[in-house]
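Possible regression after last week's pipeline update?

I re-ran a chain I had predicted before the update to compare outputs. Posting the input and the new output here so someone can diff against the archived version. Not blocking, just want to make sure nothing changed silently.
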Amino acid sequence: MEKIPDQIGYLVLTEDGAVLESGGELENDERVATIITDLITLSNKVDPVGFGPNEPFKKISITYDDHWFVICLSNKKIYVVKRSIQQLTTEGSAINV
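New output (post-update):
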């Protein structure tokens, strides 16, 4: 998880939201873990007609001005990565904000 480019924090959670691993700005962040598990529970209930019960999400992205969260499910674990957003300068090279 620490090798992900522009990563500033990460969580690995169990299906019920317990923190298995964490690092960076999300080190042992139980509050974010609770928010993420609540969001997953909510997303599974959004529209059972449009999104069938056998169609779980593959990825959720939450974008802010200077960072974003990517949430994925794999092998009965929830992976959350907080990444900084790259902005282009007038010369075209990326800089962190």
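Follow-up from reviewer: compared with the archived run. The CA atoms of residues 44 and 51 lie 8 Å apart. Marking as no regression found.
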